[in-house]
Amino acid sequence: MPLLRGPLVLVLVLVLVLLDAADAQLPFIGRCPRPPILKHFQVHPYLGTWYEHEKFFTFFDLGGKCVHSIYTDQGYGRIGVENQQIKVLTGKMNSIVGVARVVDPHQSARLRVVFSNTPNFGNGANYNVLETDYHNYAVVWSCKDYKLFNTQFLRILTRKRHPDAYMIKDVKNRLEYYGLKTSKLKTTNQRDCPYGY
Question: What is the CB neighbour count within 10 angstroms for residue 14?
């Protein structure tokens, strides 16, 4: 029986990583870092279009450009989420639609986003707003802790498709200070996007 322990643990770890891959998260060694989550998050100024400037790898964005998210008020505490992109190989628009809800009314920047037709594992926050000024940038992060390793999701969103480089540098410096690995961020291709998209 002890011989089965090693392979069984390996299979369990592999299943957990694959489940997180479906949830679009990047694995790291060790426990989750503890960056500060925004206090007093306001939903209404956050609504509207945000362009993805940089992110940890996600399957949704694979082979895509012009990635952006549109947040709308759905009423009853629900926030509509539509992530859109253009597939580079086909030139066609691709989108995924979901709903976000605040997980804890005392921590309004901790949300749970559930997308249509995708697996939904758990009920905790998977969309934590670390920072935003509502007019220029926002940082969204989540982490699942498995004690020996963790999986993280990180996005820097901007109101402009091509934001100020100094602003991005300042944001990334703060993220590094919080213990987040900005070297793993990938810049999203926002070039040659159709007008109004």
Answer: 10
Domain positions in the chain are 2-187
Counting every residue, how long is the chain? 197
> In this predicted model, what pLDDT tens digit does every residue of 125-175 receive, in sequence order?
899 999 999 999 999 999 999 989 999 999 999 999 999 999 999 999 999
Question: Strand 107-115 to strand 137-145: parallel, antiparallel, or no bridges (unpaired)?
Answer: unpaired
Look up residue 102 and give its two tokens: 């605040």
Rounded Cα–Cα distance for residues 74 and 76 (Å) = 7
Helix or strand (DSSP H, E) at 45:
helix 43-46
pLDDT at 12 over 90: no
- Radius of gyration from C-alpha coordinates of the chain: 17
DSSP state of 196: T
Return the CATH number of the domain spanning residue range 2-187: 2.40.128.20
CA angle 82, 68, 103 (to 5 degrees): 50
